[in-house]
Write a structure and sequence with these properties.
Elements: H1 2-21, H2 25-36, H3 41-48, E1 62-63, E2 76-78, H4 96-101, H5 105-121, E3 126-127, H6 151-166, E4 171-177, E5 190-192, H7 195-202, H8 204-211, E6 216-219, E7 223-224, E8 227-228, H9 233-236, H10 241-244, E9 250-253, H11 262-267, H12 290-296, H13 302-318, H14 350-362, E10 365-369, E11 372-373, E12 382-384, E13 395-399, H15 438-446, E14 451-455, H16 460-467, E15 472-479, H17 506-514, E16 520-526, E17 540-545, H18 553-561, E18 595-597, H19 606-611, E19 629-639, E20 642-651, E21 657-659, E22 662-666, E23 677-681, E24 684-686, E25 691-698, E26 704-707, E27 712-715, E28 719-725, E29 731-738
Parallel strand pairs: 2-3, 3-4, 4-6, 5-7, 5-18, 6-9, 13-14, 13-15, 15-16, 16-17
Antiparallel strand pairs: 1-2, 7-8, 10-17, 11-12, 19-20, 20-25, 21-24, 22-23, 22-28, 26-27, 28-29
Helix pairs in contact: 2-13, 3-13, 5-6, 5-14, 6-8, 14-18, 15-18, 16-17
Length: 739
C-alpha cells in the first residue's frame, strides 16, 4: 500500500509540474513571435525543412535543425500510433482498432498518456499519431492504425488520445489529412468526396482532435478532389478547413508527400516538409534551396515564412517543451556495435505493461459462447465453452502458427507474418521486443494442471491430429495488412489485403479442428473483419476476436479465456458474409493514378448495411460477456440546446463485468442521414446484481447535419428517434425527440 500511494503521489506531482509548465496559446504565440524575430533566414529554414531521409546524423524518424543560440533543439518526430518504433526498451501497445473496441474513453486516454510518457522519456517531441483514417473498406491496409469506419467513435478515440499524449507535454500529430483510405496507388490517387460527406464523416474526427488542442496535423500522400493534400488550400490554406475549425498548430507533410513548387506549398498552408529531401515518391520541395530562393525572390513572402516558423514553435512553447524537456536519447537510424538499438533509457514501466495487458483484454470481443456447466445454470462450473475452468481441463491442444513467437529479426517495418500477429506492418508497427506469444502464456498459466499438445503451424493434418479428442482445442488464426511503403509484398498482399479470408488457410484449419474436437475455441488476431463462414459449427464453442493486441497478446488472451478478465469488447466494425456487404472497394488496378469517387457518401459499414437491409454475421457494436445485462428506465430531457439521455443498466448474471451501452440517433427522414448513427457510448462496470444509471448528452451538433450552402452544421427539424442498446442491431430502449 505504501509503494502504491508513493507512485500515485509521484504521478500527481509530475502532472502538476507539467501543468505549471504549460502555457495558453496566446502566451505561446507571443514567445514564438519574439523568437522568430531574432532568427536568420537559414535558421528559419532549418525548422521548416527536415534534415533529410539520407542524413546519417538524423536521430529520429524526422528531425529539424537546432538553433542552439536561441535554445531551440532539433525537434524529434517519432512513429508510431501503437508505440515507439525503432527504439528499444519501450512498450508495444495494442493498435488503434483495439482501443476502439474497448468503447472506453478511460482506456483511450490512459493509452495516450502512456504514449506521452514514453515519448517524453526518450526525448521525442512529437508523437506521430493518432491516425484518424476512416475504415472506408475493411481491406484497407492501415485501417488497424486508426479506429474503424464510424466517425463518432473515431473522433472520441482521437480526442482522448490527444488529451492523454499532450497532458505530459508531448505534441500529438493527427493524420492523415484527408480521405487517405487505401494503400494501392496511395502516392497519387485522388479521393473525390462531396462537401457534406467530408464534413460529417472524414473530417469530423479531425475536428474532435482540434477541440482537444492537437498541436500538429499531417497532410496525406493522396490528392483530395484533384489537388495534392499538402498544397491543398481548401484543406490547409489560410481559409481552409483547419483554420476555419480553429486549428492553432502547424501542418507537416507525410514523408515525401510534397509535390510542385516551394511557393505552391508554402503559400497554400504547408508549414513543415519532412523528411526534407527527395525520396523517389516525392519530397524535396523545400530543400535544395528551393524554399530559400522562393523567399528571396518574393514568391513566398517574409510574412509567410515567419508565420510558418511561429506556428511550429508555438506548440513547443505551449506544452512547455522549452523547460526541462529530456534530450533525445536514442538513435532510430543507426545501430551500435552490438547490432541492437540504443539502450540508454528504459521507459517501460510496470504500469504501462499492465495497461497494455488491460487494453488487450478489454478489446477482446467475445463473438460466440456455447457454454455448458456442471449444474446447467450460469453459476455452474464450465464444462464446454468459456470461461474455461482450469482445474477441469486435463488435455489441451494449441493449434496454429499464430500461437507462436514471430520472427523477431524480420525487418524494421515488421513485414512478416510467421507467428502470432500482434500488430500490422509499416510505420504504424511497434516493438516486438517484449512480446509474449499465446503458447508461452497458456503453458505458463496451466502449469502441471493439464497436458498440452501443440501444432504451431497451419498444417491441416497436424492440427487435426493434435486436437483430436482433447478436452479443449485453442485454434489461433490471423489476417494481417500494413503500409504500402516500398511496394513490398507480405504473403502476397501489398499493403491492402487481397480479400477477407484468414491467412495460411486459417478457415480450413478451424474446420478441421472442429471436426475432431467438440470444445473448439477460436482466437482471431486480425486487422479488421474476416470471413467467418465456420462460426455456426456446433463444435465451435467459443470465438474471440482479439484484433492486434500488442506485446501482451499471450497474457491478455489467457486472462479472457480463463475468466480472470470478463470480455467486454465491442466490434468497432461489422463482420459480414461477403465483401459486397460493405458497399466499397479497393482500387487495385489502374492505368495511372486512379480517381476514387466516394459515391457511397455517408453509408459505410453498418450504415450501408442498414440501408440495404443486410444483416451481418456480427454487427457493429456487438460483443458478448460472461454475464448478462438488462436495460431499463429510458428518460430524455431537454437541457438548453442539448438533450440528456438517462437509463439504467443492471448486471443480471453471475459474473462481475463491464457493459458498453451505445446511443444511436435516427434523424427525421428529411435530413438525408443514414437510418441510424452512433452518438454516444459509456463504460459501466458492475458486480452481479448491481445496477447503475447511465447519463449521455446529445449536443446540438450531434443532432445537426452539414449544410453546404451556409457552410455550417444546422439542426434538423422533425422527430428524432433515440435508440439505446448493446449493439447497432440490439436496441433495448427507444424514445423520441421532436424539434
Amino acid at each position: 500500500m505504501h509503494l502504491h500511494w508513493s507512485f500515485v503521489w509521484a504521478s500527481l506531482l509530475a502532472a502538476s509540474a507539467l501543468e505549471a509548465q504549460a502555457r495558453t496559446w496566446d502566451e505561446a504565440y507571443a514567445l514564438a513571435t519574439s523568437t522568430v524575430s531574432q532568427m536568420t533566414l537559414d535558421e528559419k529554414l532549418g525548422i521548416a525543412i527536415g534534415t533529410g531521409q539520407l542524413n546519417s546524423n538524423r536521430r529520429c524518424v524526422g528531425d529539424t535543425t537546432a538553433v542552439a543560440r536561441l535554445g531551440i533543439p532539433s525537434i524529434c518526430f517519432q512513429d508510431g500510433p501503437a508505440g515507439l518504433r525503432l527504439v528499444k526498451n519501450v512498450t508495444g501497445f495494442p493498435a488503434g482498432l483495439n482501443v476502439a473496441a474497448t468503447f472506453s474513453r478511460r482506456l483511450m486516454r490512459a493509452r495516450g498518456k502512456a504514449f506521452g510518457e514514453e515519448w517524453r522519456g526518450k526525448g521525442a517531441h512529437v508523437f506521430l499519431g493518432p491516425s484518424l483514417d476512416i475504415m472506408r473498406n475493411p481491406k484497407a491496409g492501415r485501417a488497424w492504425e486508426a479506429f474503424g469506419p464510424d466517425p463518432y467513435l473515431t473522433g472520441e478515440a482521437g480526442y482522448e488520445t490527444v488529451i492523454g499524449v499532450q497532458s505530459v507535454g508531448v505534441q500529438a500529430c493527427a493524420k492523415h489529412l484527408i480521405a487517405n483510405n487505401q494503400e494501392h496507388w496511395r502516392y497519387g490517387y485522388t479521393s473525390n468526396v462531396d462537401d457534406r460527406t467530408l464534413q460529417e464523416l472524414y473530417y469530423y474526427p479531425f475536428i474532435r482532435t482540434i477541440e482537444a488542442g492537437v498541436t500538429s496535423v499531417m497532410c496525406a500522400y493522396n490528392r483530395f478532389n484533384g489537388t495534392s493534400s499538402c498544397h491543398n488550400a481548401n484543406l490547409i490554406g489560410p481559409n481552409g478547413l483547419l483554420q476555419k475549425s480553429g486549428f492553432k498548430g502547424y501542418v507537416v507533410s507525410d514523408w515525401g508527400a510534397t509535390h510542385d513548387s516551394a511557393a505552391e506549398n508554402a503559400n497554400n498552408g504547408l508549414d513543415m516538409e519532412q523528411p526534407g529531401d527527395y525520396i523517389v515518391i516525392g519530397g524535396g520541395v523545400y530543400g535544395f534551396n528551393n524554399l530559400k530562393n522562393a523567399v528571396n525572390n518574393g514568391s513566398v513572402p517574409q510574412a509567410r515564412i515567419n508565420e510558418m516558423i511561429t506556428r511550429i514553435l508555438a506548440p513547443w512553447y505551449q506544452l512547455g517543451q522549452d523547460k526541462d524537456y529530456p534530450p533525445t536519447n536514442f538513435d532510430a537510424q543507426k545501430r551500435d556495435g552490438s547490432g541492437s538499438k540504443n539502450l540508454r533509457v528504459n521507459v517501460r514501466t510496470n504500469e504501462h505493461t499492465a495497461l497494455a495487458r488491460e487494453i488487450a483484454s478489454a478489446s477482446a470481443v467475445l463473438l460466440k459462447n456455447s457454454r455448458s456447466t456442471t449444474t446447467g445454470t450460469p453459476s455452474g462450473i464450465t464444462t464446454r465453452g468459456l470461461p474455461v475452468a482450469k482445474n477441469r481441463i486435463k488435455t489441451i491442444a494449441v493449434v496454429g502458427q499464430d500461437a507462436k513467437l514471430p520472427n523477431l529479426n524480420c525487418n524494421e517495418l515488421n513485414e512478416c507474418n510467421d507467428g502470432t500477429m500482434s500488430v500490422g506492418w509499416g510505420s504504424g508497427s511497434n516493438s516486438l521486443e517484449f512480446l509474449i506469444p499465446p503458447i508461452d502464456a497458456i503453458t505458463s498459466f496451466t502449469g502441471s494442471s493439464a497436458t498440452i499438445t501443440s501444432s504451431l503451424s497451419n498444417d491441416l493434418d497436424e492440427g487435426a491430429k493434435a486436437a483430436k479428442g482433447k478436452d479443449v482445442a485453442y485454434v489461433f488464426v490471423n489476417a494481417m495488412s500494413g503500409e504500402l511503403g516500398s511496394y513490398t509484398f507480405v504473403v502476397g498482399n501489398q499493403g491492402d489485403r487481397n480479400d477477407l479470408d484468414l491467412w495460411w488457410k486459417g478457415g480450413s484449419l478451424v474446420e478441421r479442428v472442429a471436426a475432431v474436437c467438440n470444445n473448439t475455441i477460436v482466437i482471431v488476431h486480425s486487422v479488421g473483419p474476416v470471413n467467418m463462414s465456420w462460426s455456426a459449427h456446433p463444435n465451435i464453442t467459443g470465438i474471440i476476436y482479439a484484433g492486434a493486441p500488442g506485446e501482451q497478446t499471450g497474457p491478455s488472451i489467457v486472462d479472457v479465456i480463463y475468466g480472470n478478465y470478463n470480455p467486454a469488447g465491442k466490434l468497432p466494425f461489422s463482420i459480414a458474409d461477403s465483401e459486397d456487404a460493405y458497399g466499397t472497394a479497393i482500387v487495385y488496378n489502374s492505368l495511372g493514378f486512379p480517381e476514387i469517387n466516394y459515391t457511397e457518401k455517408l453509408l459505410l459499414d453498418y450504415r450501408y448495411m442498414d440501408s440495404k437491409n443486410i444483416k451481418p454475421r456480427f454487427e457493429f457494436g456487438f460483443g458478448l460477456s460472461y454475464t448478462t445485462f438488462a436495460y431499463s428506465g429510458l428518460s430524455v430531457q431537454k437541457s438548453g440546446s442539448s438533450y440528456t439521455v438517462s437509463f439504467t443498466v443492471a448486471n443480471t448474471g453471475a459474473f462481475a463485468g463491464a457493459e458498453k451501452p451505445q446511443l444511436y440517433l435516427a434523424y427525421p427522414a428529411t435530413a438525408g442521414e443514414p437510418k441510424k448513427v452512433l452518438r454516444g457510448f459509456e463504460e459501466i462496470i458492475l458486480q452481479p446484481g448491481a445496477s447503475s444509471t447511465v447519463t449521455l448528452t446529445l449536443n446540438e451538433r450531434d443532432m445537426s447535419v452539414w449544410d453546404v450552402p451556409s457552410q455550417k452544421y444546422v439542426r434538423s427539424s422533425g422527430t428524432f428517434n433515440v435508440l439505446v442498446g448493446a449493439s447497432s442491431l440490439d436496441i433495448r430502449l427507444q424514445s423520441s425527440i421532436t424539434v
